[in-house]
């Protein structure tokens, strides 16, 4: 059975794509109890975001550490082992077999859930060709989802547009987390494979990552509430 969420609010993950820890704290305060789950990526992680992750966990929030680790297996193992001490809920690694196996070894018995990134949501088939891949996006996503399942990864990060493909491959037990979510009427920006929150939930996503449509809104709390309303209505 697919993991059941204790709180429907956990389905929304707000990306703290801001330059400073102070900006992040201010945003978290603005969003209040309506948001329970936050993503910390490169920008914030390299500006004090790991300490912020510890603080958010201490305050009862869930944290998705989006570092997309990729290195030789032993280095990934050691890095993941260190990160288990933070108490975060999710950590991303790139979906290369050796990388995923190293991450699973480093996680050990910790509660941390590992998510494998299949193909970035800013990529299309042309981008993959430019990078030297001979596969189309959908074929690469399918292959990496299969490899992630074999490696013992807990979930997949993919575009909502590939959710149905991924679910066919991984079955009901693994999680699907979808970035690149754009509420109706919002700009796609640099994302090329997007869906609305309601569409993503209907095709089987477990968690939706939303950044700019919330954090750059004139009223971030209202914007987050509107996304949550879509999630609840589609659930």
Major sheet: arrangement of strands: 1-2-3-4-5-6-7-8
What is the annotated CATH architecture? Alpha-Beta Barrel
Shape: globular
Number of spatially distinct domains: 1
Q: What is the third-level CATH name, the topology?
A: TIM Barrel
Distance between the termini: 17 Å
Please give the number of β-strands.
Answer: 8
- The low-confidence runs, each spanning 5 or more residues with pLDDT under 50, are 187-193
The CATH class is identified as: Alpha Beta
| Radius of gyration, CA atoms, in whole angstroms | 17 Å
Spell out the helices and strands N to C: EHEHEHEHEHHEHEHEHH
Q: Helical stretch count?
A: 10
Structural class by secondary-structure content:
alpha/beta
What's the mean pLDDT score?
90
Beta fraction of the residues?
A: 15-25%
InterPro entries: Aldolase_TIM, OMPdecase, OMPdecase_AS, OMPdecase_bac, OMPdeCOase_dom, RibuloseP-bd_barrel
GO biological process, one term: 'de novo' pyrimidine nucleobase biosynthetic process
Enzyme class: lyase
EC number: 4.1.1.23
Can I get a quick summary?
This protein is an alpha/beta fold and 235 residues long.
Tell me what the structure shows.
This protein is α/β, with parallel strands linked by helices and 235 residues long. The chain has a single domain (8-234), classed as Aldolase class I (TIM Barrel), CATH 3.20.20. It contains ten helices and eight strands. It has helices at residues 21-31, 42-58, 73-83, 97-107, 125-130, 137-151, 163-170, 197-202, 212-215, 220-234; strands at residues 12-15, 37-40, 62-69, 90-94, 113-117, 155-157, 175-178, 207-210. It has an eight-stranded parallel barrel, surrounded by five helices. Helix 7 (163-170) links the parallel strand 6 and strand 7. Helix 3 (73-83) packs parallel to helix 4, helix 4 (97-107) packs parallel to helix 6 and helix 6 packs parallel to helix 7 (163-170). The two termini are 17 Å apart. The model is unreliable at 187-193 (pLDDT under 50). This is Orotidine 5'-phosphate decarboxylase. Homodimer. Substrate binds at residues 17, 39, 66-75, 121, 182, 191, 211-212. Pfam families: OMPdecase. Its EC number is 4.1.1.23.
């Amino acid at each position: 059975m697919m993991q059941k969420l204790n709180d429907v609010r956990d389905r929304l993950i707000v990306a703290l794509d801001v330059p400073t820890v102070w900006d992040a704290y201010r945003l978290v305060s603005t969003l209040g109890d309506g948001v329970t789950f936050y993503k910390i990526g490169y920008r914030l992680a390299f500006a004090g975001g790991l300490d912020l992750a510890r603080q958010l966990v201490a305050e009862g929030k869930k944290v998705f550490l989006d570092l997309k680790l990729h290195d030789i297996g032993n280095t990934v193992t050691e890095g993941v082992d260190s990160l288990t001490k933070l108490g975060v809920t999710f950590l991303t690694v790139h979906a290369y077999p050796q990388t995923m196996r190293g991450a699973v070894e480093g996680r050990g018995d910790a509660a941390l859930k590992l998510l494998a990134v299949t193909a970035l949501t800013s990529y299309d088939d042309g981008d993959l060709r430019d990078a030297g891949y001979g596969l189309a996006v959908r074929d690469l996503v399918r292959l990496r989802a299969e490899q992630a399942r074999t490696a013992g990864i807990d979930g997949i990060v993919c575009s909502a547009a590939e959710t149905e493909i991924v679910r066919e491959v991984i079955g009901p037990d693994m999680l699907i987390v979808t970035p690149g979510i754009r509420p109706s009427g919002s700009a796609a920006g640099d994302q090329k494979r997007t869906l609305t929150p309601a569409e993503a939930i209907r095709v089987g996503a477990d968690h939706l990552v939303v950044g700019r449509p919330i954090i750059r809104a004139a009223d971030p709390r209202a914007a987050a509430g509107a996304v949550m309303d879509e999630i609840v209505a589609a659930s």
